[in-house]
Write a structure and sequence with these properties.
Layout lengths: L2 H8 L19 E9 L5 E3 L2 E2 L3 H8 L2 E3 L5 E4 L4 E6 L4 E9 L15 H4 L14 E6 L4 E3 L7 E4 L5 E8 L2 E5 L1 H8 L3 E4 L5 E7 L2 E8 L1 H5 L1
Parallel strand pairs: 1-6, 7-12
Antiparallel strand pairs: 1-2, 2-3, 4-5, 5-6, 7-8, 8-9, 10-11, 11-12, 13-14, 14-15
Length: 220
């Protein structure tokens, strides 16, 4: 099957702009495998040849999801085809820190009789809120590291343990090397219970893990 044929079947549903197609609600029959591989460096290869049309890659990425068994597929309402992903389907290529607005706590209520006596309660001061980092993937997804959306370490095909971020539909983004080094400049070190040193930073008041230095390596 040709990748462009999938988009032809979808029509406007795979449009570049607007909301994502509801691929999590589509449950068509499995129609086999497509010779399409997403390389660890972010290149999309069809039958061994890079897909040079960035728009085509972007639109295909909007109809991709990960199955419960860990496989990756492209989905339409009528068919589903399996594709191969060497590491993670997306790369996080940029980031920014969003400064949070102070928490504007509603003013307290005055007690009966205070207004007449001029004894109004002191107004609570706005409380600073933790900043939030957000990532941008190579396909334009914006991932805010807040709540349960956090960086976690996972193993790459090269055997390294590097951070990834959840994106959508079970898909994740590996940090591009340049972005990884940028975030290392923001990193602080924390000692773990086993003596290892964890590298990371805070976002939305939660620790975002970038890597771990073992106590054994630190002693050498």
């Amino acid at each position: 099957m040709n990748p462009a044929a999938i988009l032809t079947r979808l029509g406007d549903r795979a449009g570049k702009d607007g909301p994502l197609p509801p691929v999590e609600t589509w449950h068509p029959e499995h129609c086999g495998e497509m010779d399409l591989v997403i390389r660890a460096d972010g290149r999309w290869m069809h039958e061994g040849t890079p897909i040079g049309r960035a728009r085509l890659v972007h639109m295909l990425s909007r109809v991709m999801r990960r199955e419960p068994d860990g496989s990756y597929c492209l989905v339409t309402p009528a068919e589903k085809v399996t594709i191969q992903v060497e590491d993670r389907p997306f790369l996080a290529v940029d980031c920014s820190r969003v400064e949070s607005e102070p928490d504007q706590t509603p003013p307290g209520q005055t007690q009966p009789g205070q207004a007449e006596l001029g004894e109004a309660e002191p107004q609570p001061q706005p409380q600073p809120q933790p900043d939030i980092w957000q990532l941008v993937t190579d396909q334009g997804d914006i991932v805010r590291l807040e709540g349960d959306t956090r960086l976690t370490l996972s193993e790459t095909p090269d055997g390294l343990w590097l951070p990834e971020a959840p994106v959508r539909f079970g898909l994740a983004a590996r940090l591009h090397r340049n972005l990884y080094y940028r975030l290392l400049e923001e990193a602080e070190m924390r000692e773990l219970d086993n003596g290892d040193q964890a590298l990371g930073f805070m976002s939305d008041g939660h620790w975002q893990m970038l890597g771990v230095l073992s106590a054994r390596d630190l002693d050498t």
